[in-house]
């Protein structure tokens, strides 16, 4: 197995890069998707969230109201730490299970673990990345994308970008940086070059 840690700020192009790598044959594991799966109705993590934050974080159908919960923990470090202490271990366990399954199906699999909070250390301790890839775009571009593509108002968009660690911290851990501030074609060509590099490295191993 070859394990890639893919990270980057909100609206920095992670999904685009991940999709391209999957087109080349990689297995994609999305930490955000896993974070949604582990809090589905009936899951232990959801029960613990209700204990901690109350039943008002549920919708009428019993699913988690992520927006309401986000409003509670956003800007409240203690509340966010409590939430992370519930969700992160569940995500780690599911991640390990999915990686194990991918390797069982294909021992030489290239696995892309797409994790926005890689720098913030919400990553399984036993994961050893062969390569850390960071998608990078300037703050103004991230804000513009959130407003134009996701419907955020500008102040909300700026707050979401500023709530994450800065690009400097992410770039410090990067083995490869993909600049996503240009055209889609430019992003794709960098991703294709990354795949070519991985194939070369593995052929020499």
Automatic annotation (TrEMBL):
**Family note:** Belongs to the CoaE family.
User: Which molecular-function annotations from GO does this UniProt entry contain?
Assistant: ATP binding; dephospho-CoA kinase activity
**What's its top-level EC category?**
transferase
Q: Where are the transmembrane segments?
A: none
Q: Which InterPro entries match?
A: Depp_CoAkinase, P-loop_NTPase
Residues binding ATP: 11-16
- Predominant place of localization: cytoplasm
Give the UniProt entry's GO cellular component terms. cytoplasm
Give EC number(s), comma-separated: 2.7.1.24
Keywords of this entry: ATP-binding, Coenzyme A biosynthesis, Cytoplasm, Kinase, Nucleotide-binding, Transferase
Record has ATP-binding as a keyword? yes
Q: Name one Pfam family in it.
A: CoaE
Cellular compartment(s): Cytoplasm
Give the protein name, as stated in the record: Dephospho-CoA kinase
Catalysed reactions, as listed in the record? 3'-dephospho-CoA + ATP = ADP + CoA + H(+)
Q: Which domain of life is it from?
A: Bacteria
**Function of the protein:** Catalyzes the phosphorylation of the 3'-hydroxyl group of dephosphocoenzyme A to form coenzyme A.
Q: Which PROSITE patterns match?
A: DPCK
The pathway is: Cofactor biosynthesis; coenzyme A biosynthesis; CoA from (R)-pantothenate: step 5/5
Q: Which GO terms describe its biological process?
A: coenzyme A biosynthetic process
């Amino acid at each position: 197995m070859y394990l890639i840690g893919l990270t980057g700020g909100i609206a920095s192009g992670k999904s685009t890069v991940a999709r391209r790598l999957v087109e080349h044959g990689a297995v994609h594991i999305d930490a955000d998707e896993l974070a949604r799966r582990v809090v589905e109705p009936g899951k232990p993590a959801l029960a613990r969230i209700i204990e901690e934050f109350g039943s008002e974080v549920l919708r009428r159908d019993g699913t988690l109201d992520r927006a309401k919960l986000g409003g509670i923990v956003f800007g409240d470090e203690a509340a966010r730490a409590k939430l992370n202490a519930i969700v992160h271990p569940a995500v780690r366990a599911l991640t390990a299970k999915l990686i194990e399954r991918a390797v069982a199906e294909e021992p030489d699999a290239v696995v892309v673990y797409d994790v926005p909070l890689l720098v913030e250390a919400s990553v399984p301790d036993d994961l050893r990345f062969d390569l850390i890839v960071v998608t990078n775009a300037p703050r103004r571009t991230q804000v513009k994308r959130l407003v134009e593509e996701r419907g955020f108002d500008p102040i909300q968009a700026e707050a979401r970008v500023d709530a994450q660690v800065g690009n400097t911290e992410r770039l410090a851990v990067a083995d490869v940086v993909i600049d996503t501030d240009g055209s889609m074609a430019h992003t794709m060509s960098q991703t294709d070059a990354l795949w070519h590099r991985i194939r070369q490295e593995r052929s020499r191993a």
